[in-house]
Amino acid sequence: MLSDEFDTQADIAAPAWNQAELQRLMDVQPSGAGRYLAPAHGPTARDVVEAGQLLGDAVVAAAKHVPHQRVTSASMIFSRAAAHTAPLDIEVDALRSGRTFTTAQVTIRQHDSPRCAGIVLLDSGAPDLIRSATPMQQVDPPDRLRPLAIPGTEVDGRDMRVVDDAYDPDPNRVGPPELFVWTRFRDAPEHDYLHTALLTQSSTHWTVAAALRPHAGFGEAMAHRSISTGITMATITFHDEVDVTQWLLYATRVTYAGRGHAQSEGQVYTEEGTVVASYSVHAMVRGLEPRTTSSVTLL
User: Fold this and answer.
1) Which of 97, 122, 140, 281 could join 207 via S-S bond, C-beta 3.0 to 4.6 A?
2) How far is 23 from 163, CA to CA, in rounded Å?
3) Any residues with CB less than 8 A from the CB of 143 and at least 6 apart, and which?
4) If DSSP codes are grouped into helix, strand and coil, which group holds residue 286?
């Protein structure tokens, strides 16, 4: 698994990270009226569920709760870390249900303690009245790039290729505050909402690394060692239908970094240049303070 929160140490005791496991974790199952359950993954080197996976859980839960409408956008604040070693309880409350739009509040708990909460917007769809989009930047296509092979990033069945090999653990390699990453999954999920969840899971991966790129002496490999990082808020909007077995380009640009924070904006494009989703991510990036308690803290 890879994210802005990932640990480069191998997950020795955990189940294998593969596409089927990612889908299993995000294909939440009904457990009562307005309630869904996400299974535990198991022990890992760093027992923290990444923000993109939690956001994917919310997308799937809302899609199952309001099956006659399509998830248009989802936004969550991640206020407390969730562990891989216990299941997650997800509550969906339709605040307003209409023929055109439904607004749903989603809360994710673990051990009866809230971990994150957000809002999901669903709609019934409509034909184009107008259509325009930000064009995709010209970057190397995936067939000219090598797969991302940093230890700890591998997920069997997922191929990631970073333009210019810019996701680099070397803290002295500098560049602009942006990352362009091609991603493709090997197997087609059975349901559209699982395509959407897998797309969502990758949207929080790149913000911290992009924020650190312009600054010599700071790099992603320092996360959770000498730098305290984590995703605190994420919003994703889905524009068109998506097929995660086709190459998708995540174009992430950090628009601000300072005061212990980083903010990014991004789009997801098909290889043909069609924008299928947009996202914004807020992250924590600050010096690592000595631990004074063993309790789980903010992501």
Assistant:
1) 281
2) 26
3) none
4) strand
Interval 248-297: pLDDT, tens: 999 999 999 999 999 999 999 999 999 999 999 999 999 877 655 433 33
Identify whether the C-beta of residue 52 lies closer than 8 Å to the C-beta of residue 200: yes
Residue with tokens 């891989």: 84
Measured CA to CA, the distance from residue 89 to residue 87 in angstroms comes to 7
- Reading the block at residue 201, the tokens are 């899971």
- Where would I find the beta strands (DSSP E) of the chain? 29-32, 35-38, 70-78, 88-97, 101-110, 113-123, 158-162, 178-185, 227-238, 248-258, 261-270, 275-287
Could you give the CA distance from residue 231 to residue 289 in angstroms, rounded to a whole number? 17
CA 224: distance to chain centroid?
18
Distance CA 186, CA 205 (A): 19
DSSP state at residue 149: -
Contacts of 20 (CB under 8 A, 6+ apart): 157, 187
| Closest CA relative to residue 53, chosen from 198, 168, 185, 170 | 198
Distance between CA atoms of residues 18 and 226, nearest Å: 29
Do 74 and 277 contact (CB within 8 A), yes or no?
A: no
**pLDDT one-digit tens code per residue, 33-83:** 999 999 999 998 889 999 999 999 999 999 999 999 999 999 999 999 999
- The secondary structure element, H or E, covering residue 208 is helix 207-212
Amino acid identity, position 63: A
Measure the N-to-C terminal CA separation of the chain; round to a whole number of Å.
16
pTM of the model: 0.91
Residue 57: name the closest of 99, 103, 107 by CA.
107
Residue 215 is which amino acid?
H
**Ramachandran area for residue 282 (φ above 0: left; ψ -120 to 50: alpha; else beta):** beta
Plot region of 198 (φ>0 → left; ψ -120 to 50 → alpha; else → beta): alpha
CB 240 within 8 A of CB 274: yes
